[in-house]
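pasting for the record
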Amino acid sequence: MATILITGASDGLGRALAEDLAADGRHTLLLHGRDPDRLREVAAATGGEPYRADLASLAGVRRLAADVAARHDRLDVLVNNAGVGFHAEGTRRQTSADGHELRLAVNYLAPVVLTRELLPLLRRAAPSRIVNVASVGQQPFDFDDPGHTREYTEAAAYCRSKLALICHGFDLAGELSDSGITVNSLHPASFMPTTMSRRSGMDIVDTLEQGVAATRRLVDTPELAGVTGRYFDGEKEGRAAAEAYDPEYRRRLAEVTASLL
């Protein structure tokens, strides 16, 4: 039996993953969402504990972590799944409650902060796992324009945030190498039939079941016990963008990240 927190669990991949895990009847599921009605629905369907929070606010992220810590003294798995997608022709730059570009804030800064805040619970449960839901769509961060104010598109912002999340996962895996906590990132599947995919205007490519299977594998498959610092494309180990393996790029990204937090 494991205690598992899934962000973005009220819709799409997160909800499907929660339902898949609930079918086992042996895990304690902590389900994060923003929409109260959908969150109540998935909690009722899975028997999970609902946690409402807006990840576009760093204060909201910290309150989420505090709420979890108030009810649980350990966490076996953290699935950083919540994210903001893109419209194919979207060019309107949006900002978070803290003034950060929205996709960077929700897809990257929020999981960075949430993971840091929950590390004490993950340490108590070790061996434990951190799973970052990233994407095969990846673009390097522009260090001359960290706020992405020039030549903005939603798709580019999304891809920047996902590469940043992978980079952070690689660094965190190294930092936690002796802790018993593993950190892995994955592209679960391409354009599954979810709200996020439909908003993108792209054709559906893969099934939701494929995405669930790939993510579930990182959550609790015994064969991946102790495996850390990897990027997976579906159920196979993959290769992220070149910048993810460049220590200098990751160092500069970490510096920018610290300045934003």
